[in-house]
Amino acid sequence: MLWMFLEIAFGLGLLYVGGEAMVRGAVALGRWLDLSPLVVGIIIIGFATSMPELVVSVQAVWQGLPEIATGNILGSNTANILLVLGATALVLPMHHQPRALPRDALPLLLSGGVFALLGLLYGLVHPVAGAVLFLALVGLLSHEFRRARRETRLSRELAEELAEEVEPHPLLGNPLLASLAALIGLGMLVYGGHLFVSGASAVAAALGVSHGLIGLTLVALGTSSPELASALVAARHGHSDVAYGNVVGSNLFNVLGVGGAAAMAGGLTYPDLMSVFDGPVMLAATVLMLAFFASSRGLTRTRGALFVGAYIAYIALRASFS
Fold first, then answer.
1. pLDDT in tens, 261-287
2. Are 36 and 202 in contact (CB under 8 A)?
3. pTM
4. Measuring CA to CA, which residue among 81, 70, 89 is closest to residue 286?
5. 3-class secondary structure, 267
């Protein structure tokens, strides 16, 4: 079984190295084309940094394993809320979000609710529904761009975040090298996604568990690990509230972008257990997160411990069903 986990580890490494190369190449090209930092920031922060999740899910559908893709989306969103936010709050409590919450609550509830309801009612996300989800993401990004243009401070913050996260290498000032880096990164993403999905499928077969459970656990945790690492580092430096924005953005992209693209690639099937259990759990975690951040206490250490405990209980219970 060792080779299976090596395949997963190598695939995951290619996903993140390839993602970095593609993003930095794309940023350098954007600057060479004289695009504004705001335009590049919206595109990169809102889309390209989540390419590993998107590639893994689309690859799973293409390889005839749509349950892995569905499990990845549901499992990543649940892990982002219960594990990432919970662990972050244990390090440093998080404040309530009086400004961001009214803007974030409706998109989160609508996107998560529609995605869960599609599974509950139809047992699948049809390619047409996937196109609608993806167009909704485009609409949200367009709205964010227009809003940021009106708010000078937000525009400056996005530009600073982009400069901190994806400052291109000096060599990428050459547009040919920047294009080459982006293309090589894309190739690494595609091949890494193939290896990661193949390894995960082999582990499921060897352990005698469903592909859906592997998607909910191994794949979801693998693709959510950067969010967890960055949130814990930010908390150690006294910036735990950064995790809230990262989780909101990641969860919206997972449902609308990853779910939409994977469904368009061939349709997403919902196994019965995901429809009646995992989808509602993801939605319940979203509601609980919004309720905690709406309260004046925010996400305290006690509530963070509740989140982490709930995640462990969820995974243990879910594994017992398979």
1. 999 998 899 989 999 999 999 999 999
2. no
3. 0.82
4. 81
5. coil
